[in-house]
Write a structure and sequence with these properties.
The complex is a heterodimer of chains A (about 350) and B (about 350). Chain A is mainly α and about 350 residues long. Helix content of chain A is about 70%, strand content about 5%. Chain A is built from 16 helices and six strands. Chain A has a two-stranded antiparallel sheet with strand order 1-2. A two-stranded antiparallel sheet of chain A has the order 3-6. In chain A, strands 4-5 form a two-stranded antiparallel ribbon. Chain B is built from 14 helices and four strands. The two termini of chain B are about 30 Å apart. Classes of the chains: A mainly alpha (about 350), B mainly alpha (about 350).
Chain lengths: ~350, ~350
Amino acid sequence: MTATTSPWQRVLHHRLFWPVVALVVLLAANTVNRPSFLSIRVQDGHLFGALINLLKNGAPLLLVALGMTLVIATRGIDLSVGAVVAISGAVALSFIASAPDPGSITTVLVAVGIALALSFVLGVWNGFLVSVLGIQPIIATLVLMTAGRGVAMLITGGQITTVNSAPFKAIGSGFWFGLPVAVILAAVVFTAVALLTRRTALGMLIESVGINPEASRLAGVKARNITWTVYAVSALFAGLAGLMISSNVMAADANNAGLFIELDAILAVVIGGTSLAGGKFSLSGTLVGVLVIQTLTLTVTMLGISPSVTPLFKAIVVIAVCLAQSPKMRDVVAARRRRAARTPAQTAEVTA
Amino acid sequence: MSTVKTPTPTSPREPGNEPSTAAGTSAGMARRFATRVRLDRRYLPVVGTFVVLALMLAVGGSRYENFLSGRVISNLFINNSFLIVLAVGMTFVILTGGIDLSVGAVVALSGITAASLLQSGWPAAVVIPLVVLIGTVLGLVVGIMVHVFDIQPFIATLAAMFLARGLCYVISLESIPITDETFVSIASWSQQLGPEWRVTTAVVVALVVVAVAFYLLHYTQFGRTVYAIGGGEQSAMLMGLPVARTKVLVYVVSGTCAGIGGLLFAMFSRSGYSLTGVGMELDAIAAVVIGGTLLTGGTGFVLGSVLGVLVLGLIQTIITFEGTLSSWWTKIVIGALLLLFVILQRVLVVRRR
């Protein structure tokens, strides 16, 4: 960005301009529909309100999308996160259900530990297929996506496991310092990832692997380890998201837990401006993308439209954002502006 | 088509190599077989699929009575006819190096549109071409998004998937039964071939689609351009091939196949339901990959994909025959088989270099 551009143009050409516009429009539509939408009240020392619920329900998606962002930055994709969500919930709840004392904190901590460790192992498996065997990411993770739900069913024995355990319930619907635990967990993970990738060289190394794995290897970057790590991390985050989702309903449904969450996560990443071609990622973009999707889902419900129709609106948003971001469309718009102003549109080239 | 080139006489360097000595693992057999008949490398994955299919038939035949009967094999085709059509369409897209995630949702959309139009009294003669056309139009939209606007196939077809699924819910949330006489009589037509074999309308349609696809891929300029794009888009363009048109057309082909698949599924289930075909695109992709088509594009055969569908169907059949295994083993076995084939392909690619 050159100094000659005006602040307004800088805002207009920012990568996140259109996604943020979409978010603001959605929030405004909700406020018009129900003026109390933006209000947040304090009750029993906890914050309550539609916005807090929005953040709470979006926490699992944010976790999955964060992992997905890192994977996509290395020019990969992780289709297995939905299956990992199901497996993680199934393992944790089966362990708690079979434990002698489901309400004790120790039981819950062990259950969480086992679930997260297993998710990590599944991620290591994905990473092994991609980085060591060199299988295409989409097909390598498709293996686990297909088999994973079968494994989750195997763990729960085809039943929907339900438990009653106060400490486990806290993960999905508890409050700390007046905020939902899920939101705090997601915020901590987001900050940690942001610090690790943007305050150290790690983010740049991930991007270099995404641009050209071979060249970065020759330049001394441990490309294989980085690729391996992002898949492990992605599955670990998915495992945590699985704990949140299963804790929210206190049930492990091997068939439906985290169904299509991989698609929502990919959508969020793409809306946030991270290209599927790899080599570039934006964590704040992913955050905005998650909020857009979550608000969209909420809006559809609040406007009294059947929630099943949500995919239609998601499709419209994705198509609109993708078209707005596509180079062809930018060229067309830039050319029209150039003709109108009869001056070389430098800004378009600068941002491109 | 024979998957093996005409067997040439034993190679001159090893005149004493007798065919009967080929014993051992299937992989070892395939390799020895390959060196002896100078099998084209391109056919190796398909031969692998064929070996797996034969092994499954042999194991099933030895374990269960009545397994190797015309009835079981006929049912294999009848129950999987829609998947065969989907896999054929998917093969075109994957050959160019793309992917189509929308087919499952398009199946549901075309099925539920057919059911709802028939319910409101439209004649079957209008409805049937119309719902196939829905698939074609959606495919065209995807093709334009992919080619003109340079959106990645994964995202463009994902959007189409959400679009089609959302439209399904707009049409109806409940399952709509199909009672139209013409449609039902078409759907329930079947022809006995001998005492055990049987074909239905769906099987005939599927086989016709396979034949047309085979002709298109191997005997037309369009087919050769599809392979050329998969091999290298830049080179195909430099060769003066109609890359733009072909890239849009493969999605049209896949969309049309999904429309036909939806129609066949509606015939199969005698109803339209907005939740049908969830995850069906993954079955189609799995079938194509198991059938030996490389996801990077450029290598693969329609008949391989058909074999892939049969392998998937046979897993289901064996698990049904076994009786004691729970249904989720199907998913686990499919995943394991997918892994096996992907690794096999990877080994082949590495050895070629």
